[in-house]
């Protein structure tokens, strides 16, 4: 895959590089508050900023793509760089433009062809060159941030992801086989930065489209929000256990959109016998998450958006092993906990403050992805955010 040319350290690496980088990244994310009140508070603050930005649309038709990217991008920026950006900041908007552009290009037929013949097509003109250019610019931005961190680094008081990595580099500077190098730092930050921004923003965009398409679902969610959260405080993760319908809707959005249909490439570490097949060591495997998320036995009418897929007969939230939106096993998404918190808190905050209004009749809204390759890209959709 084209990402492999940049040797992504968590998503596409393997062996000792993957083990050390993933273990370290998880440790830092937890130290920075993933799964705790500290990161929840950051998301709540960002949700309020998003709400204020949406209010400025004055209830007029708008494309919310940029705003829905700014919020998760700022959350991950606070973890990596210790600061957030104003939604009008040109650097933030440029970075988001690169993320959005790359996600669309990566899911086009041309990239599928490029993936099949990378050695041949790498030197041809085509949209893959735009991806490489965008990624190069993003890496330049990250390197600038790292240099500033080096100038202000306090070895005894790390403030963010980059600080933790720089301290680890200093401790292992005499280890010739260390995985903690400057190149690895740039690539790991890019990995966490891009994955932590684009997947969440795509899910939010797709989720709002589905809520527009199904106003009866939106009404039930807002009734639950009014009853449990009210209008005078921010939603928190403790609310989720008392909001089974909303929880089911968030899960159903992720199941229905099937964001990463074929997962990411994996490789066997030894010869594996699977059913009647022998898969040799080193074989690259793509697993179909679609086959699980759209399994008709587990989810009746899997092609239909139905929160009932995650509710029992009493209306309680129902867990299922078939929910693999974040993959599964040892290589499950390293930021799953963060993404779950963001999706719940940001969606609930939006629906707490706004009535969603489509610019066309809901029955005419198309929810089929505009592109479906590495990721599923939602179709363009303008909408109105009417303050409640």
TrEMBL record:
PROSITE patterns reported for this sequence: CYTOCHROME_P450 (PS00086)
Record's keyword annotation contains RNA-binding: no
MF-aspect GO terms: heme binding; iron ion binding; oxidoreductase activity, acting on paired donors, with incorporation or reduction of molecular oxygen, reduced flavin or flavoprotein as one donor, and incorporation of one atom of oxygen
Annotated SUPFAM superfamilies: Cytochrome P450
Predominant place of localization: endoplasmic reticulum
Gene Ontology cellular component terms for the protein in this record: endoplasmic reticulum membrane
Biological processes annotated in GO: organic acid metabolic process; xenobiotic metabolic process
Pfam families from the UniProt entry: p450 (PF00067)
Keyword Protease: no
Family: Belongs to the cytochrome P450 family.
Protein name: Cytochrome P450 family 2 subfamily C member 8
Native source species: Moschus moschiferus (Siberian musk deer)
């Amino acid at each position: 895959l084209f990402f492999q040319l940049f040797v992504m350290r968590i998503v596409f690496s393997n062996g000792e590089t993957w083990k050390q980088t993933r273990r370290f990244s998880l440790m830092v994310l937890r130290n920075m508050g993933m799964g705790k009140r500290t990161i929840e508070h950051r998301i709540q603050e960002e949700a309020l900023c998003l709400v204020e930005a949406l209010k400025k649309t004055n209830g007029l038709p708008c494309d919310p793509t940029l705003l829905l990217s700014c919020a998760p991008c700022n959350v991950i920026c606070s973890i990596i760089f210790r600061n957030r950006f104003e939604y009008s900041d040109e650097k933030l908007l440029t970075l988001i433009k690169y993320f959005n552009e790359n996600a669309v290009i990566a899911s086009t037929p041309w990239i599928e062809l490029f993936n099949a013949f990378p050695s041949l097509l790498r030197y041809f003109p085509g949209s893959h060159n735009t991806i490489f250019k965008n990624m190069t610019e993003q890496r330049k931005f990250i390197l600038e941030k790292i240099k500033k961190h080096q100038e202000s680094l306090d070895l005894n008081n790390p403030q963010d992801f980059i600080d933790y990595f720089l301290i680890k580099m200093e401790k292992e500077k005499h280890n010739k086989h260390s995985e903690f190098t400057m190149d690895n730092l740039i690539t790991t930050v890019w990995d966490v930065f891009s994955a932590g921004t684009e997947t969440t923003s795509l899910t939010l965009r797709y989720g709002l489209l589905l809520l527009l398409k199904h106003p009866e679902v939106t009404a039930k969610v807002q009734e639950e929000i009014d009853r449990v959260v009210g209008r005078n405080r921010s939603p928190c993760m403790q609310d989720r256990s008392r909001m089974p319908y909303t929880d089911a809707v968030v899960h159903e959005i992720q199941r229905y959109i099937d964001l990463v249909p074929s997962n990411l490439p994996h490789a066997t570490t030894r010869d594996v016998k699977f059913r009647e097949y022998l898969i040799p060591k080193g074989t690259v495997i793509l697993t179909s998450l679609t086959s699980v998320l759209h399994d008709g036995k587990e989810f009746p009418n899997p092609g239909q958006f139905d929160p009932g897929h995650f509710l029992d007969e009493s209306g309680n939230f129902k867990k299922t092993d078939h929910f693999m939106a974040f993959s599964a096993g040892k290589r499950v998404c390293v930021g799953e906990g963060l993404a779950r918190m963001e999706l719940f808190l940001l969606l609930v905050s939006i629906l707490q403050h706004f009535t969603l209004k489509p610019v066309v009749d809901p029955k005419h809204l198309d929810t089929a992805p505009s592109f479906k390759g590495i990721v599923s890209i939602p179709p363009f959709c303008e909408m109105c955010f009417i303050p409640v």
